[in-house]
TrEMBL record:
GO CC term (a single one): mitochondrial inner membrane
Residues in coiled coil: none
Main location: mitochondrion
Family in the record: Belongs to the ATPase A chain family.
Keywords: ATP synthesis, CF(0), Hydrogen ion transport, Ion transport, Membrane, Mitochondrion, Mitochondrion inner membrane, Transmembrane, Transmembrane helix, Transport
Pfam annotation, one family: ATP-synt_A
Membrane topology: Multi-pass membrane protein
Name of this chain's protein: ATP synthase subunit a
Organism from which the protein derives: Aegithalos concinnus concinnus
CDD domains with a match to the protein in the record: ATP-synt_Fo_a_6 (cd00310)
SUPFAM superfamilies, A to Z: F1F0 ATP synthase subunit A
Catalytic reaction list: H(+)(in) = H(+)(out)
Transmembrane intervals: 12-31, 69-89, 101-118, 138-158, 170-189, 195-223
Cell compartment(s), UniProt: Mitochondrion inner membrane
Amino acid sequence: MNLSFFDQFSSPSLLGIPLILIALTFPALLLPSPDNRWVTNRLTTLQLWFINLITKQLMTPLNKKGHKWALILTSLMIFLLLINLLGLLPYTFTPTTQLSMNLALAFPLWLATLLTGLRNQPSASLGHLLPEGTPTPLIPALILIETTSLLIRPLALGVRLTANLTAGHLLIQLISTATVALFSTMPAVSLLTLLVLFLLTILEIAVAMIQAYVFVLLLSLYLQENI
């Protein structure tokens, strides 16, 4: 029983072929395709308005040099948002519950922001490791602490996204299992747990959206430090 709770986090396969690539490419089918018509339907207009809203929110903290990253950050935001929301559907697999995938997204982008800062303004980027006015005896320890905090940023990004989504999926499965188990013996308690499950599902929808936004927002803040 305990092992079955974690079966939802294992990558599905068909004839020995992992299907995680299909899960990763499926959200692209929900995006609007290029069209030459002047007048589009309401769904496409709503999608474009939402993409424009996301882009404005992400680009507000950045200066003009950081606007070159608009396409990457907006695409990543929409990608994570769709995957997180689609993973809440029954009998689906959520790739963002895999720490390896989240680290594969976080580490290259974090490294790109770091290398951008070292290339454009090396003195300012290295200056973050040693705040001004630091007492001389604390300089070695402070440099070590700041370097460690800098290097664990991609790990923190990946673990935060993985932990929040994994905890939410486990809670939903535990409460749904309790609802079914109590239905035949204690219907009143089962209805109460069903209400809790409904409220938890709404909460998890909000968490899925917030975690996608926080992941990309932190990357944009790391970028702002280095440009």
